[in-house]
Amino acid sequence: MTQQQFNDGLLEFIDSSVTPFQAVTTMVDALVAAGFNRLDEGDSWQLERGRGYYITRNDSSIIAFRYGNKSELVHGVRMVGAHTDSPCLRVKPNPDLRKHGYLQLGVEVYGGALLNPWFDRDLSLAGRASLTNSEGRLISVMVDFKRAIAVIPSLAIHLDRDANSKRTVNKQTDIPPVLALIEEDDDLNFDGILSQQVELDNPGVKVGKILDWELSFYDTQPAAITGLKQQFVSAARLDNLLSCYTGLQSLLGAGEEVTSLLVCNDHEEVGSNSAAGAQGPMLKHLLQRLFPKPEDFARVIERSMMISADNAHAIHPNYSDKHDGNHGPKINAGPVIKINTNQRYATNSETAALYRHLSDQVGVPVQSFVVRSDMGCGSTIGPITATELGVRTMDIGVPTFGMHSIREMGGVEDAFGLSRVCKAFFDTENLPWC
């Protein structure tokens, strides 16, 4: 695969993966097309060496793996982890707001969203809805309006002269999106709007009663290659769909000798504390089923490694003082090893050295990021996975601008480079500690 082919696929993947539910659906489609087989966590499993398998949980988290021909007791498991969720605006359970002739929806902020960029964007809505159908059966379905159905209008500067210096965003009152103009006797409501869309998106489904939903607004502007020299990738949800796609392509290209695994968890942006999150037992349960004897499990973990892939902060030319002077990653200068001595990242010298060695072998540059000593540091699924499993782990990320904005920006070279290193990692039969 060329860099251009990789990036074309990345743009398509991001545009189709507008929520974690759609992201998992998109990954499942790619896995099935590559011959991977679905496993149900409630069934007994009969696995064959050399084949690919996957499980999903909550429709929003996924683990896919190639069950290698060589013994994991000797060679361990190669793991790459990412997350499917991004900061966004979620529709509340009783969302209908009718004010001054406008229909609006109440929303809740999911994760640490950068809110100002959400204003004046063409927004659509997608996710999962649960309902009874015309036969009274309880089902859950995917929903995606796809078209622009809402906007959060800014307050004109004429009415807020301090907007450019002092404006703040009230999460309760300032961000309900506007959907329509309505008359006083108009009975238009969200239940009816959603019921109609469910039936449009799911032919053959007749809605009896909408019972609940997990729906997120998203920007309808497509992902794009941008810049005067076409050097940048601009898109929503680069954090962290970029890593999901990178891990997926690496897994699809991996060989069949060593067991290789991709885990993409939901709920990272809100702490990972869920059955489908990295703090939950999903990955551990799968590995325990592959290696049910406690001694075998411990031996496999000792010979394994996890690469936690989540975007890094590129040094911003307008705010360079926000970085440590010696650790300001640049876009298109290579993936970034993320290091924090207080274990906000799971990287240690041993795992970082292996990554640097693999990068040298495939000719991909590498950078380092350490947060300023006087600033707080974010975290990833890396330390959580290391704690839950006891597996050697490192944190890596592609440098980006605008993290947690409605539209983020990275480089055309970095994700492709990371995919090459991850594929080399998947294909490495003997780690130094094996």
TrEMBL record:
This is M18 family aminopeptidase. GO terms for molecular function: aminopeptidase activity; metallopeptidase activity; zinc ion binding. Its EC number is 3.4.11.-. GO terms for cellular component: cytoplasm. Gene3D superfamilies: Aminopeptidase i, Domain 2, Zn peptidases. Belongs to the peptidase M18 family. InterPro entries: Peptidase_M18, Peptidase_M18_dom2. It comes from the Bacteria. It is an enzyme of class 3 (hydrolase). Its cofactor is Zn(2+). It comes from Sinobacterium caligoides.
